[in-house]
Design brief:
Layout: E1 12-14, E2 39-41, H1 42-45, E3 46-55, E4 58-67, E5 70-79, E6 86-92, E7 102-104, E8 107-109, E9 117-119, E10 141-145, E11 148-152, H2 156-161, E12 170-171, E13 178-179
Parallel strand pairs: 2-7
Antiparallel strand pairs: 1-8, 3-4, 4-5, 5-6, 9-10, 10-11, 12-13
Length: about 190
């Protein structure tokens, strides 16, 4: 987004893995080919600017598209005077019942070289680990390089408002974690 009178600097970009990448080029997490109808990378479906809204209190851009038969939408909002953007992703699943393994909206930190500072405690221990919104144990993932800083902070109120638990999931005795039965064939 560009704010009139303020020079723009690219800090983050939506990550879209290139097709046909060689082995080891990206985390297996981004390989949506096996079971593609259940593994959704939102950036792969965003194909059009649906709407651009300017108000006195800020501006929003709505991107939309499809992944297979599923509709995806990403709304990026910059409030007047804010030092951050708010990104909201909506996925409308088809099927009865709708099935989903994951819907991800990954981002890259756009700097030359490696960031000088990275803070992401308790999130990942291996390159192909995944962090789910229900076990986000860190208040933020933060990266800094020279004067550029980016933090990914989950909107916990929003996540908790729209919690969906898979059919067959059983709450375990240790708290709010759920055990979901796995089908080895998938």
């Amino acid at each position: 987004m560009h704010v009139t009178g303020v020079p723009g600097v690219l800090i983050a970009a939506s990550f879209r893995p290139s097709p046909g990448r060689p082995d080891g080029a990206a985390s297996p997490l981004y390989d949506s080919e096996p079971g593609a109808e259940y593994r959704l990378l939102v950036s792969e479906g965003l194909s059009r600017v649906q709407e651009s809204v300017r108000r006195n209190d800020g501006a929003s851009i709505i991107l939309s598209g499809e992944i297979g038969s599923h509709r995806v939408q990403q709304t990026i909002t910059l409030a007047e005077g804010a030092d951050h953007v708010h990104v909201e992703v909506t996925v409308t699943l088809t099927g009865s019942p709708p099935l989903l393994e994951y819907a991800l909206s990954p981002y890259t930190f756009e700097v030359d070289g490696e960031p000088e500072f990275i803070h992401s405690p308790a999130l990942k221990f291996a390159a192909d680990d995944v962090i789910g919104d229900r076990v986000f144990e860190s208040p933020a993932v933060m990266l800094q390089h020279e004067t550029r800083f980016m933090a990914l902070v989950p909107d916990l109120d929003f996540i908790n408002q729209y919690t969906v638990v898979a059919r067959g999931a059983r709450q375990v005795a240790t708290g709010n974690a759920f055990s979901v039965p796995l089908t080895p064939a998938k």
